[in-house]
Amino acid sequence: MWTAARRTSHSQILGINMELVSPFAAITASTLREGFPLDVRSLLRGLASIQPQALVRSGTDAGRLVLALVLIVSLCCLSWLQSVVDDWIEAYKTDRDMALLDLINFFIQCSGCKGVVSGEMFRNMQNSEIIRRMTEEFDEDSGDYPLTMAGPLWKKFKGSFCEFIAVLVRQCQYSIIYDEYLMDTVISLLTGLSDSQVRAFRHTSTLAAMKLMTALVNVALNLSINMDNTQRQYETERNKNVAKRANDRLELLLQKRKELQENQDEIENMMNAIFKGVFVHRYRDAIAEIRAITIEEIGMWMKLYSDAFLNDSYLKYVGWTMHDKQGEVRLKCLTALQGLYYNRELNTRLELFTSRFKDRIVSMTLDKEYDVAVQAIKLLTLVLHSTDEVLSPEDCESVYHLVYSAHRPVAIAAGEFLFKKLFSTREPEEEGAPKRRGRQSPNANLIKTTVFFFLESELHEHAAYLVDSLWESGADLLKDWECMTSLLLDDPVPGEEALTDRQETALIEIMLCTVRQAAECHPPVGRGTGKRVMTAKEKKTQLDDRTRMTELFAVTLPPLLAKYSIDTEKVTNLLQLPQFFDLDIYTTGRLEKHLEALLRQIREIVEKHTDTEVLEACSKTYHALCNEEFTIFNRVDIARSQLLDEMVDKFNRLLEDFLQEGEEPDDDDAYQVLSTLKRITAFHNAHDLSQWDLFSSNFKLLNTGIENGDMPEQIVVHALQCTHYVVLWYLAKVSEGSHRKEELVSLRKQMRMFCLMCQRYLTNVNTTVKEQAFTILCDVLLVFSHQMVSGGRPLITNSPSPLSLSQAFTILCDVLLVFSHQMDDEAAKIEALHKRRNLLAAYCKLIIYNVVEMNTGADIFKQYMRYYNDYGDIIKETMSKTRQIDKIQCAKTLILSLQQLFHEMLSELGTGFDRSSSAFCGIKELARRFSLTFGLDQVKTRDAIAMLHKDGIEFAFKEPSPQGEGNPPLHLAFLDILSEFSSKLMRQDKRTVHMYLERFMTFQMALQRDDCWLPLISYRNSLQAGGDDDTMSVVSGYSSRGSSVRSKKTKAATPTATVAAAKRKLPEGSSRTRVWNMQTPVMMPSPHLTSTMMRGPGDMREEAKRGRDDSYMGVYALPSDSQQHPHPHTLPQTPQLHQTPIDYNRRGTGLMEEDEEPIVEDVMMSSEGRMEDLNEGMDFDTMDIDLPPSKNRRERSELKPDYFDPGSIMDESVNGRPPGNTTSNCICHMHRKQQVYCEKLTYKPIN
């Protein structure tokens, strides 16, 4: 309501007569009107001259309004709060009625109401009448009020508002708080406002009442402490000898204790009134924010004054509310309980509650709201910290597996729980004894426990996620690399069980993950939220960790490699460690001999292994060590060059013998060639081997394989890959800077030869070879496409023809895209699907980057429905990208894919097919899916849709009937498919398309009504629907260019004005000639490569379902009149939140089950009757107080509905709902009842 954007005059909101207000008040109102500018302190200095006592004594409404403004502005400056409260207390002592009236107006103003409570109203009207009068003042369009408004100022307002109440009670706790007038009046007012149907009143007053209750709890706690001290002093004085006893002091202490007891009773009466009058109703309010306030405050009461509030009578409300459907409320429950479980002294009082609600807390660790799940895990950690016997092993296991969660806060909280459960117990070290290191350190058993847990979890590929989860709570344990290497290298001591081979593999993997985490300081893939700027302390820790790990592993890595040199998995992980070293340590730490040992071990591993993963790890290690910035570069470069020289020489010798004419190579020769080629290919991936001229030897090998046809599969695969690396390294060399003409000519020649070789291998009988050739060919064509030029000229001139590539892909579609369901191994199925998705994505990128013609994508688009679950996301993304490049060509490709499927159906079923057959229905469903991809903006897709219909009509009448004249054309049934796109035509375009259709029709066709002519009839009907109203279509089409959301204050345009405006908006050249004489626009810049991550079938189905629903929404903009009077069947539906509801029908002898109540309160019911039901069976230790009738009576039946809260308007049927049923948090009035109340109260309901 008070937003700077609206610039609503605050004097109008508050109803101020500016002629009666002092100049400073005018400044205050102006300040509020401008939204509290930053120079508010200068304003406050001016307002400081206003004396609240003088304003109150003036007795005018203007004076009271100015004081209310002063109080509100004071909330923006906490330093001014104290003096304002002191001045108000002095004014209260002078004239309590007028001062109290100012405080009442303050609460009214803070609710955002413009009304003012006058002195006459205060004296002569009851609270219910005053609230009803204030309710009628809410006639603003906006439903905002101070507590819900955004911005830093209003956030500060909320905090200051709460602080004001606390300061007020604190300053009054020794005097006027006990006068039986101030607190009774305030509590009565807040209780009545909290029962209002106006959300602003209910929200603001509930917050004020709960903060008032918290302040009274602090007062009661102080009184309790003073009573205990007084009682102790009294007992001490009475126990003295008669001679030393001071009777006067005893009487004073007795009198003081009596006064404190009376004050305590009075405070308890106040708290009882607030609890029963506000809390027991509002903790089930329809608004989640209000429920959250109540739960947050009751948690504070139990924490502050546990002797009075920490019992089952109050804990039950928190337990019940943990089943709330709103995550915000559940979160407040958990944070409230955390404050209780944190104090171990309170654990004994929580035993019954824990046993009753433990299962609910454990289930909340899987809450759909991540914040709630995090706090639930933290609460269980506190429960575990307090007592280890409450949580069963099943409860703990349900938390353990969350360390592998993709949501990092959940995983870290679960890691803390796991660390406290499994690793909190350490072996005590004897004082004075030398610190044990390595295998004998206290961390040895804990590291073994980590390994055991990792293996038992059966998620062996997720060690990085386990380490990241434990990093914050157990970093010291995870960075004890000395102990880890000792467990791997040292022999076990007598009596100690050695690690098994599987455990050693797991330990090495965990050790690698900890090294990576310490060196990179960011979470693994899938958990990161973007790059985070590290603090100076974190950077220093990172440098220290890298130094320490380098010093340790530089010495221990060579013996580790020597010990596990034949184990592929262990060696692969160990070889990744040098990538995280600080290589300067080799020089500064005089560790050159250990570097030599490392290089020798890597060389031996390369010579021993032929596994691709091991060889690539060795290649990356050499690449990390061969850094020119470090002094060890020359030494490592020499070792690498020697190794590569030997491998290339060996390969050339073996290849010469292998390809020697007249001799049949044996398996041993093939194995030698393959193993050497594998090593060279792995190193060529990370190192430039251009100086060894590997292109000639590999091309010779590949050419021989084509000629003879008996080349082993793996040799061809690795030869293709190695040649691919040769071409790419050559391209990188040419692209770096100036290049000679000879180099460019040589590159083009190699490129042309290699592409032709890949094309030839596309027809190979071996599937693996075809996959490799196809993938490499797509990548090379993409890299050397027309978009990558040198000096303005393409790097290649003779690329493979798109037609041959498309034909090859068609073959691959038949062979590769058909998913084999005969595989029994699920892992094999997933791997095969992953390969096929990569092949499809490779070809789709060629389409997107215009390497091949866009119409070749028809072979892919027509498979959209058939392989929707496996490739639907890739095909849909390709359609989206092609539409961004060229909408018309994309539409022509879509219709071409449908035509191809139609031809295939005719060839399979013949010309007399049944249009209800599954094949025809499948094509029609695919057309419907294609139609949904065009979206709702008809203007953007106008030309594309028109061209689609043009091609479809021409195709339908292209082939005459084979049965002769008088029969329908051969492809006439295609019009039934084409009708799926009619809804995407603008209305004036429907007439144009219909006229184009009539060009192909004869007079006899228009008269036909046989079944074989039904496609033509239905298509014509789809074009004629709404086609006569041109002006409507123009309005709907062109209005979609702008925002469809209109201001609520905009007047509804008259029909005449609408039509006139529409006719003015008609574009020139919108005739039929314009539609059909469309030219293909210039190609847009090709988009970036997109990810083709696999999405689940469920997600795709949901997306398709949403698209289907959207397609039948109103495409055309409704007239303004229709927006003013919504159809009764279009009322918004209440969203169904999938949260486990609480079963309130349970009854038993357990904790707090005798008077369970629903979370959401039916706010239309009588408060008095509901209060009696709620308090029935409650055992409170407080007394009911009898406040003055004029201030305590509430007439809820006369209050008005809350039209400012769309979520709290309820259905009439809810009024009769049994109390045991669970209702939703957002309940709606019937539309008819809204109109009745609107006519009765002249409210403007918020739609």
TrEMBL record:
The keyword Nucleus applies. Residues 279-364 form the SCD domain. It is found in: Nucleus; Chromosome; Chromosome, Centromere. Signal peptide: none annotated. Residues 220-273 form a coiled coil. Residues 1052-1061, 1130-1141 have a biased composition (Low complexity). One of its GO terms (molecular function) is chromatin binding. One of its GO terms (cellular component) is chromosome, centromeric region. The keyword Cell division applies. Its main location: nucleus. The chain crosses the membrane at residues 62-81. Keywords: Cell cycle, Cell division, Chromosome, Chromosome partition, Coiled coil, Membrane, Nucleus, Transmembrane, Transmembrane helix. Residues 1037-1069, 1082-1104, 1121-1141, 1179-1217 are annotated as: Disordered. Belongs to the SCC3 family. This is Cohesin subunit SA.
